[in-house]
Amino acid sequence: MTNKDVFTFYNGVTIPRIGFGTWQIPNEEAYAAVTMALKNGYTHIDTAHAYHNEENVGKAIRDFGIAREEVFVTSKLPAQVKDFDGALQHFEETMSNLGLDYLDLYLIHAPWPWDEIGKDCTEGNIQVWKAMEQLYDEGRIRAIGVSNFAIKDLQAILDNCDIVPMANQIPFYIGRDQTGLLAFCKSHNIVVEAYSPLATGAILDSTEIKQMAEKYGVTPAQLSIRYCLEKDTLPLPKSTHEARIIENAQLDFTISPEDVAILDALKDVRAK
Ligand code: A2P
């Protein structure tokens, strides 16, 4: 994987084909983890206000000395914020936490608050999307998108707003069938980002995945992350260990279409 491997949003902005995920990395560990990722060639870092690590993610990026335009930074609007002014205010907080003067990608973290999963927040999502559109039009953000959005949530934005989301970041890994959502996103030129490409580690003990990884001479983690690329999604693996951070970006192999089909058919591979 090189820095030149990118997805291109429909507005022409490019995003590196693999990103470093920082969900579940506490603020105290985020500085070291992001520094290790940058040192080992990652140029795309994904965080969120809700991860409570934006401060050290931003500090690591600033201290590393990489030119701002050489690193792609994503953050997310907290899921419970569903009003226009609240969205603008939280964006300013995120920028102040990160210590950066623009963001590459800003996402609505979820269509509903995490303690009310499934609640219909259509009107709120439209309001916050309008705030994101304003920030985008002002040049504060290079691309805007959503996360954890189902087809109906996306459709509400398409029906009521001006800008089509450029990305939808969803949980995606071997055994998690997202076929309908992937096809819908593709038909609207929405790049799908895969968070938890290892199912937070739970698929790595799967016998089927282990056996196929052996066949390709790679690790189960590499096979699982490469699978996301084969499905045209952008994986965001996360690790706090340098050897794994390096391993997770070494994806210069391809999985045959036959083997992708076998992986597509795997169910219940979560070992834990
Ligand atoms: P750690 O941070 O201790 O390395 P996901 O990206 O699906 O959220 O998965 C993250 C989980 O998988 C973390 O627990 C992480 O542990 C673990 N992990 C990340 N990369 C690897 C790897 N290459 N081999 C084994 N476990 C990994």
From TrEMBL:
SUPFAM superfamilies: NAD(P)-linked oxidoreductase
Regions crossing the membrane: none
Keywords associated with the record: NADP, Oxidoreductase
One MF annotation (Gene Ontology) recorded for this entry: oxidoreductase activity, acting on the CH-OH group of donors, NAD or NADP as acceptor
Domain NADP-dependent oxidoreductase, residue spans: 17-267
Domain of life: Bacteria
Pfam families given in the database record: Aldo_ket_red
Organism per entry: Trichococcus palustris
Family that this chain belongs to: Belongs to the aldo/keto reductase family.
Positions of the catalytic residues: Y51 (proton donor)
Protein name, entry field: Aldo/keto reductase subgroup
Phylogenetic lineage: Bacteria, Bacillati, Bacillota, Bacilli, Lactobacillales
